[in-house]
Amino acid sequence: MTSLPLRTHRLTLAVQISLLCLLPTVAAAQDAPGNSARTLDTVQVTGSRIKKAELETQVPVQVLTREAIDRTGYTSVADVVQHLTASGASLSTKLNSSGNFGFPPDGGGVGAGAATVDLRHLGPKRVLVLVDGIRWVNESSGSGVGSSVDLNTIPLALVERIEVLEDGASSIYGSDAIAGVVNIITKKNADGGHIEVQYGDYNLKGGDTSSVDMSFGKSGERAQWIVGASWFKQKEVASTEYEWATVPVPGTGLANGSSATPQGRLVFADPSGKTYNITSNTGITNPVFDPSQANCADGVTGPRTDDYHCFGTPDRYNFAPNNLLLTPNERKSVFGQVRFEFTPNLSGWFRGMYSERESANQAAPEPFFLGTDAGVYNDWAEKNLVISANNPYNPFGFDLTTMGSDPNLFLIGRRPVEGGPRRYEQEVKTWYAAAGLDGTFEVNQRTWNWDINAMTSESKATQTNTGSYNIKHINQALGDPTACAAIAGCVPLNIFGGPGTITPDMLAWISPVVRDRSKNTLSQASANITGELFDMWAGPLSFAAGAEWRRYKGEYHPDPITIAGEYNGVPSGVTIGSYSVKEAYAEFDIPLARGGFWGKSLDMSIAGRYSDYSTFGGTGTGKIGLRWQPADELLLRMSFAQGFRAPSIGELYGTLSRFDATLVDPCNNAASTTPKCVADGVPPGYEQANPQISVVTAGNRELDPEESRSFMAGFVWSPGWAADSSWASKLDLGVTFYRHTIDGAIQAPDAQLILDRCIDTRDAAACASYTRNDRGQIVRFEDILANLGTINTSGWDFTAHWLLPETGWGQLGFDWKSTWVTRYELINESGQPEPKGPGVEVNDSAIPEWTSTLTTNWDFRNWNASWTMRYIDRLRERCAGANGFPICTDSVADQHWLGATTYHDAQVSWRTDAWMKGVKVSLGVNNVFDKNPPICLSCTLNGYDPGTYDLPGRYSYAKLSLDF
Q1: What angle do CA 866, 116, 114 make, to 5 degrees?
Q2: Minimum mean pLDDT among 103-107, 678-682, 805-809: which range?
Q3: Rounded distance, CA 144 to CA 147, Å?
Q4: Residue 417 in 3-state DSSP?
Q5: How far apart are the first and last CA of the chain?
Q6: N or C: which end of the chain has fewer CB within 10 A?
Q7: pLDDT 10s digits, 505-526
């Protein structure tokens, strides 16, 4: 493949020149006079490959210790990092969506049952997840080729601490590290065993969680090893447990319900050309049709005295009670690692992990949408269907057909409640194996560290779907009974008789068990070296350099009936792809001053990385940072970095699939006669058939990588006058400003904005994206990925840690973290800003202007107590389908407010070393005051945003830990 020309950036050029100037010093360092060996321990901190003694580096790294993790009461890595103030909305077990809504445009699938992390609201794909500095395989959930890490595959029992870098780091780690890096550091040293048992429950029916974690290890002079196992089970919570989740849109009753009902909605024309919009009366199983009565269309509203009446809002189907507030999830994993010191200067290690996940999602019974207005992208339903007049259940006495030049079947919406709800069950198996060598050697009395490692991993999933249907079999069962009888197993189908008239024999013919499969694999090898080259005027010049190779493979295989075009649900195609990358990097830490005018120290860091991809060619990134410590108590730092994200396998190779987007047609009902809608081909009296409109999505092999620029500046201040004072043992204050710009962002245009922009401005690109039929219904909507967006975001992080002096009643500490998002701007393909921004809820995600966490911690002898307050600023959203209803704050402005929310969490623990090696008992409550999330009118499910707010209800838990 032809490589793209490498774009020249000023920073890249500066870094390259600096690296070239410094490379000759590597050889010179062999002869340079050295000082005596340094005795200060050095460590490698996330954000740099250079081992250093300083705790605070050029970039801000938030460290979540094991003690801090335990105080949260959370039972997964995802729960811990998703509650950071800099985190945005991402997948979790609170999201009840699988195949029923379709596939997102990135080809990654729905990720049902998985859990991801988003930093700076830039999306999980722009966050790099590492385990001990090495990449982790992307998720599989049986619905696409995932492009983000499922944090549920990493057992919390394995975690020693979590380091979160909230800054761009592509020059250090490569692709994906645009918004930041989450580096999960595992336990490596153990001397004995540890068992931890936890049980928790919501004050709702269901949702109880159980977990057992155990580990055992030994640490000797030359060898350390640890093995362990983890089990976690979470039960489901039905949407009926939360008042506002029991209807499609809170406060609107059935207005936003589905037109696919158990009675069936029928829109057709009789042989005279008269169009009907009717539904059978409740309780009627063998309806009689009188063609002389009102047709309930063309402005005629009835009445009718036969077995039918005009279809209206009261007839719509309420699909919400079938959903889940919390999805079931069971995870089992085993892990182990060993490290052996062959000599004082050479060690080897191995780390392995295997995990299994069983999870599920649930949705309302799958509807049949048949007719020219169906918009389901399936010819068996839209183009090649004839409901024969000879069908024993056809009450009209003539063919209903979508074929020919004058079709008369426009829409049948039938909800087969006889078949029960749709159930999507995922089985995911993930394994990971890594090994390496590391050591030290002396160069002129200077210690250099080196390591080489290799890793291979795989995540594969099977999703089993019950409660779905074979549309080809439906087509055959509705046709001529003679033709049906000639097909083995075919039974004529009754879709006209209301609930209970689809018999078990009928269901047996149309109801398959659908199984989809997906797999992601990642292989990696790398070599690194770091040390001090020589002494400069202000100290030693440190460096790190290395090379890395990775190979990604991904595949998604829908069920054979889906591939054949016979699946009544969301269509999708096979996706198979792979790519490899070779990289080299170098990083230098240059001391500029020590003492004098500049105070204690002034250092500059320079890093550069070159990546060669098999898909798009080569690209380079650079980073430069400054660290100035004018005094012991004050540190100032700044960095500027370039970044990039390579297109994922799903984004490149994803095949055509469907996404059922919840959209409001601007031309619905009364608006149909406005000049703007007339110009769009909308006839008078047009009514949007369903709140969901099917949108076709697909990958794009011509995608280029995203490019980013990140800037960070801030300070950390630990005032000496506060240390060991009467009111403080320690006081640390921090402020950080951040800014990220992403060019060529890979995305599909927002479907709602396409509709609005076409109607309002007649934008040619927007209007070309969808097609209406002669009845005004949108029957085709294309939304293909492209490099068409620019994202600009900036804000501030504030931190404060205040530890009071220890007294006779214990020691009290306060830890405060806040994030203020001052700007978030997403520019679409037409150069216009999209509505996503600070203080806005849109597309099931939110960007609060302020998020804040304050933890109060008290230690007294064997006791510990903590109280955490989590604040989420207020948000605004469009009223969407609730416009005109009292629940909407301002229908004229189409605006609804989600009030500010504060959650309170509490925990009390007691520990003693008097029995075994230690026993700890913890009791806790999250959401102490049972605060419900604010009502969301634009959200797809359950009346709230699960990516931003806690599940409704109070969660209480108890935990027992034993060391032996």
Answers
A1: 105
A2: 103-107
A3: 9
A4: helix
A5: 58
A6: N
A7: 999 999 999 999 999 999 999 9
